[in-house]
Amino acid sequence: xxxxxxxxxxxxxxxxxxxxxxxxxxxxxxxxxxxxxxxxxxxxxxxxxxxxxxxxxxxxxxxxxxxxxxxxxxxxxxxxxxxxxxxxxxxxxxxxxxxxxxxxxxxxxxxxxxxxxxxxxxxxxxxxxxxxxxxxxxxxxxxxxxxxxxxxxxxxxxxxxxxxxxxxxxxxxxxxxxxxxxxxxxxxxxxxxxxxxxxxxxxxxxxxxxxxxxxxxxxxxxxxxxxxxxxxxxxxxxxxxxxxxxxxxxxxxxxxxxxxxxxxxxxxxxxxxxxxxxxxxxxxxxxxxxxxxxxxxxxxxxxxxxxxxxxxxxxxxxxxxxxxxxxxxxxxxxxxxxxxxxxxxxxxxxxxxxxxxxxxxxxxxxxxxxxxxxxxxxxxxxxxxxxxxxxxxxxxxxxxxxxxxxxxxxxxxxxxxxxxxxxxxxxxxxxxxxxxxxxxxxxxxxxxxxxxxxxxxxxxxxxxxxxxxxxxxxxxxxxxxxxxxxxxxxxxxxxxxxxxxxxxxxxxxxxxxxxxxxxxxxxxxxxxxxxxxxxxxxxxxxxxxxxxxxxxxxxxxxxxxxxxxxxxxxxxxxxxxxxxxxxxxxxxxxxxxxxxxxxxxxxxxxxxxxxxxxxxxxxxxxxxxxxxxxxxxxxxxxxxxxxxxxxxxxxxxxxxxxxxxxxxxxxxxxxxxxxxxxxxxxxxxxxxxxxxxxxxxxxxxxxxxxxxxx
Length: 710
Prior knowledge:
Helices cover about 40% and strands about 10% of the residues. It is α/β, with parallel strands linked by helices. This is 4-alpha-glucanotransferase DPE2. It comes from Citrus sinensis.
């Protein structure tokens, strides 16, 4: 498929949980991928992209809907199991239970807890009837022998999680520290709980069978199944239990302030101990990729910047602002003193003056000062020991709120207190008191503003040196050590998610390693541009109008009138007032820009494709958002409001999409080479374009004199 250069293809992106079919139980299932592949082929697509599909059952509640926080990087999520396919001889009472559950769980959004509980309850009933038949089969024995290295610890972990009622393995007494001897006892055939262990084997076996069937179907149809490799693992996971030496458990992973969140992000994962990982040539990573390649032909490397450097936060942080890059070359005490910077206590402690308290808290400042702070100099305050971290502040605030002692809302008070504790200029390295890191956006702090001019100038210069210059060679070397281990572990095509604050070394390294980058039009990587220009994208890229971490095309269009006008003027090329809603012809224009781009792949979220037809835009656009990166407790539950079976029957939408793909010169799967407009209703198209002249051919470069949508 890739031999004729420059080959270009197109694809559709949708989370597994968002898919809806007539057969599913409240959530998309692996076997639904066969229907999705059929629809993709009929629409001219060569690729189907998913979000991570690993088990995330850490908290055993809806928080686990977050697909990037895995319980195990090897185990598949039981949520995606099709229980009807567990047995060819399903008892009638279980069949009736399944039919009843289908009705109860057929909701607008995913009910994560009810769906998972229902599936596991049904699976247990089938397991109890067929366990010996399945677990003694040659197919299961082969699966077990190929996967026992991760499967045994996973099953033991799930048992202990349920037994102790927590995934926090530090609370498991003598089982807190993993060993092969302890594992052998936990999974022993003589144990009273052996059937519980075997049940986890059984579920993973069937998930493997079902996903393998879907993956093989995609390969036969010429469709690339693209997976997602999360940058982190949950702090309370099988992997941190079995391989604690590979993780820095006293830290947390996130991202500095960027397009997604002006306060930065804190994902809660421990950062990696790359030095330890390198000792066996990154065997843990290589095993992950080998496992993924059983099902996928391509994969997205989540937050590829993390392989150059990771934004590391202290474990006690809740926000993503007060972090540092790891690895990085810090500012040394000697270097700072040479520049006349010497008062490190003043620069590293929260700078809290009386006027700051009065300004933020008004008349309640005395209550805040009495309960959270102590006055160590006249008019100068510091946090007391019991609330000198973000987590401690949040815990104390919760207690105050429960006692109805707060004048303002808990959220507002927390934000204001966090502003105070973040009001620093330098971060002292907790492992070496003579090393310092400039706080991100330090110029925005009153701590910085109150410094003398000499200190300000020195610190500004060192800030820009730290973030944009001195690290480049170090980060390049780090990526060239870690990324090849991933890339050489499989034959899968690798795509890197290179959004956010991008060091200048990233794109040259990706080019050197043959990695495909990501371009989202609203997040251009070029400085000075508000909107990316798809016609100028590099060939080694995936282009898309939106992604799961931002609002859909329709929602983005509707949420900001001024930005909408600028886009209409600068990209569409019209001075007219743009429509307030993203009409199908607006969508068609933007999607056409992308398919006509030089990018190797144009991959569209399914929601953006549905916006091509007015029938599918009745649901409020904001309800189609998959993730809100500013909310660490976002519920990932979006479900497409139309079934795959219905989409397959919609010839008009498939024709519009295939017309876009094939007319752009992109490859269509076998049987889809003819331009779809040959079969299109000419009168309907003519009528549509009379009403919406924006659908006239546009090259993807900003145009002048384009007639506005009316």
